[in-house]
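Exercise 7. Predict the joint structure of the components listed below.
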Amino acid sequence: MYQVIYDGSFDGFLTLYSHFENGLEIETIINLNICNSYQPFIFSKEIKTDLNISNDIIRRVLAAGDKSFLNKLFVAQLCDTDSIELKLLEYVKKFFDNKDSIHDLSDFIVMDIERIIKKYFNERHKMLGFIRFSEVDDGTMVSFIKPKYNLIPLLGNHFMKRFPSFKWGIVDRMRNLIGYYDGECYNVSKIEKIDEIVYSDKEVKIRELWRAFFKSIVIDDRISYQRQKGKVPLRVREDMVEFKNDK
Amino acid sequence: MDLLEKLNILTSAAKYDVSCSSSGSRRESYPNGIGHGAFSGICHTWSADGRCVSLLKILMTNYCIYDCKYCINRNSNDIKRAFLKPEEIAELTIDFYKRNYIEGLFLSSGVIKSPDYTMELFVRTAEILRYQYKYNGYLHMKVIPGASKELIEKVVKLADRVSANLELPTEDSLKIYAPDKSRELIVRSFNDIFEINLNTNLRHSTSSQLIIGASPEPDRVIISQAEYFYRHKLLKRVYYSAYVHVNENLPALSKEPPLLREHRLYQADFLLRFYKFTSNELFKHRENLDQTLDPKLRWALDNYHLFPVDINKADYYMLIRIPGIGPKSAKKIVEARKYGYVGLEHLKKMGVSLKKAQYFIILNGKRVKSNIEELVEQEIIKYQRNHSPLMNLLAAD
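Solution:
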């Protein structure tokens, strides 16, 4: 039984699958995106992402004629903090054994995958609202987040539609990923470190206005911090202007 | 007066309008513009009272020629007044929108000079946003009853949703509490919007708001009002606003805003819109909704002879009437039945609230649980824990 380490990418996962298919016995899987340090031991095995292998598997899936399966797999793999990988390997195996079996909603693996996909999109939907952009000196908008799942790859579409005419970037502080839109296309890449950011003069003023609005909209007779906490969990507040006290 | 102070005054003045939904709009963005409509709606934050904030909800001005007894901005109140120019509102909207603080603008206003004059300023604001800034995000605008149809048409064409508040459920109450407003004019503006939508092939939704607990009407009257407007497709959504005691000379029915009543009304409203209930079914035995039990459970207990229901045989419309099962779970059940027998484990994984549902269903030919008194007891305890004055007193430290 091996402890397997992979880089957290989708291609990495597919490479991992081909090892699994060839009989590699896996006990635990470590995703380097969310886990920077781990204790290697004699039964550790690092999987090197191999694009040829992953493309091969993608081709096999498409040959079976089911694109929606690939989409589901892609999304489920992004749910890294739920350690879904082992279950996901079984799910892919199930698909290659019998491609109709993944539509059987009474199967427990299928149910779990469907549920986790739903959780992913719930998290994404919430973050679409919670993301706060700030204007940097040169007019670029930048935002920092620390979401539960790896959302960066699937945020581009929404914000490209919304802000097509200026540059913006979203940084995942936990996974050190950045999704950057340069005015034409959206790219996801790893970042090592971020320099001090100088915000524009207007930024401070707008933040102040927003905080004022946020305070004035409250009906005092109905205050319920408990309800508020249920809706805006504390973990997302550190990046939200209205809950921060800085200038 | 600087922008910050104006914003403070006009936000406070707008907060009693409860509508905040940003759903139902499918706008695509302009290549060199800003904004698009997200069909499902997006909440951007929640304020300290637990209400969602998705729109920059603001009054253009809180000057008003009307003197409605329940309204904080009424003419005879001695409060600070402010006015935001259309250009200022548009710029503020864009600045907030760019930072993803908001999903769009909700613009309402006190009536200055005349309904037509106020509406012209609305049109001006919307035009600046749409044409100058090429803004294609969500826009919710108030229609002032009594304004001309041409102006209403202009607003409807520019906005994603328009609304006019019914304020009070009956004409009699309106005469007493808001003598300047007329129910006929309000309903006429709904009709105007309906016709404009028909003629221009637009499908903009209309919403409205009713104040709860300022006038004596029972829940039956309120819900059947909503049902009437839904049935005639005049309104897409009715909001209920628990009256907050803002003016001294209006003797509100209770000192505290009737939040639980408001909650039950929303539940009943959802039963009308998504569960195909009718108001007659809900109010067969009562004038007001039960405060202790939610309306769906109450209905199920009143019609206990229809239960238990076999999960693997019942049709969709019966499934959604089971307490604990909503449209989503019902659809999943119907879908899963095609592949095999749906059991208790499946229901759990589907997200069915078995706590309630188990008393109303048959699985494997057997009733899952039959002592319904147990459920009622639990619900009463839950109600008392959350709402009894004694418990509130103990909880408040």
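Discussion. The CA atoms of residues 214 and 242 of chain A lie 7 Å apart.
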